[in-house]
Design goal:
Elements: E1 2-5, E2 15-19, H1 27-43, E3 46-53, H2 56-63, H3 77-86, E4 91-96, H4 99-103, H5 106-117, E5 120-126, H6 139-149, E6 152-156, E7 160-161, E8 164-165, H7 168-177, H8 180-187, E9 192-196, H9 203-206, E10 212-215, E11 225-232, E12 241-248, E13 264-269, E14 285-295, H10 303-344
Parallel strand pairs: 1-4, 2-3, 2-5, 3-4, 5-6
Antiparallel strand pairs: 7-8, 9-14, 10-13, 11-12, 11-14, 12-13
Length: 345
């Protein structure tokens, strides 16, 4: 998938598009984009999406000085692009959401972005899609403008299963509640954060719990707290490494530490691949799956209390993995017995 930052230099190929923030790239997004791919293939069109950075509500939160209206961020831009690429799209266009873009009328947005910029021939949007300055554009206006400019507009309602709609709002709510089973159901995959391992204060070494640090490039993450995790990208054989991680701002530490109080995912591996050596994690791109939430971040009164808390979390993580593995073994044994019974019949 080719990633374009802005419209400059976009090829002249006719396109099939969808527009959205796609935070989380949840199952509803996936179903919609599978339909987009199918429609694009039937028409012989390049297939892709328009998304925005920052999130429009982030922009208005800053302009209006109302941080409370900014949505909690599910995925970093990097992880969003990876998730979109995994769906087999041809391209993604990241438009910088700024004053100029926010000021475009609905008609100007269609002319400058969809027609002149991206040569749209087919556009698939959600049933609640709004666009243009003041969100004045709606589906009816978009269909009228599409007829004028020669592109087809299709609408797809939000998808649902068991009466619940898939939405980024639902994913944020599940992450806030620490319900990682529900998060996995909504996303269709375990929730994960990826990136380059960066240097930190290295306090973990003093506490006998060295960590792999990933920066979460948004001040308001949808997930926070202490999690049981597994890490991909460390072992040459591709095996996931179990661990425990802190997602947040580390309230027990000074905001003037090496990472300046920014949001970090700090992961301590319960076992370390010996082939890496003690410094082998730095600079690697890893993916950390958050499997189970242990508790919210705690403000420990001392480093010794913090060390004891880390030890308890590691013990709890080991128990969780042991119970999960036992459950998997039981399930496999049950399936084997069922298969044996069927064979006898």
């Amino acid at each position: 998938m080719k990633i374009h930052r802005g419209l400059h230099g976009f090829p002249s190929d006719a396109t099939a598009l969808s527009i959205g923030n796609f935070d989380g790239v949840h199952r509803g997004h996936q179903i919609m984009l599978e339909r987009l791919k199918s429609e694009a293939q039937q028409r012989g069109l390049a297939c892709g999406v328009i998304t925005f950075e920052p999130h429009p509500r982030d922009y208005f939160a800053r302009v209006l000085q109302k941080p409370e209206i900014a949505p909690a961020r599910i995925t970093t831009l990097r992880d969003k692009m990876d998730a979109l690429a995994a769906l087999g799209l041809d391209f993604a266009v990241i438009l910088p959401f700024n004053a100029a873009l926010a000021a475009l009328s609905a008609e100007q947005f269609v002319q400058q972005v969809l027609v002149d910029g991206l040569h749209t021939r087919y556009l698939l949007v959600g049933d609640d899609f709004r666009f243009g300055a003041g969100r004045t554009g709606d589906l009816a206006l978009l269909q009228t403008l599409g007829e004028q400019h020669g592109f087809e507009v299709a609408c797809m309602p939000e998808q649902a299963a068991n009466g619940q709609r898939f939405s980024s709002t639902a994913v944020r709510a599940a992450l806030a509640a620490g319900d990682m089973t529900e998060v996995t159901r909504l996303l269709g995959r375990p929730y994960a954060i990826s990136g380059h391992v960066v240097h930190g204060r290295k306090l973990g070494r003093e506490l006998n719990a060295p960590t792999l640090n990933l920066r979460f490039a948004h001040w308001k993450p949808a997930a926070s707290g202490i999690f049981v995790v597994q890490v991909h990208g460390l072992s040459a054989d591709g095996e996931a490494v179990p661990g425990v991680a802190n997602m947040g701002i580390r309230p027990s530490l000074d905001a003037d530490d090496a990472n300046g109080g920014r949001v970090l995912l700090e992961t301590h591996c319960l076992r370390w691949p010996e082939a890496l050596g003690p410094e082998g994690g730095y600079g690697r791109i890893i993916r950390v799956e958050l499997l189970h939430k242990l508790h919210d971040e705690l403000n420990y009164p001392s480093l010794s209390a913090l060390q004891a808390g880390i030890a308890r979390d590691c013990d709890a993580a080991r128990v969780w993995f042991a119970e999960r593995d036992q459950s998997h073994d039981t399930s496999r044994h049950t399936e084997t017995r069922r298969q044996t019974t069927r064979d006898r019949i």
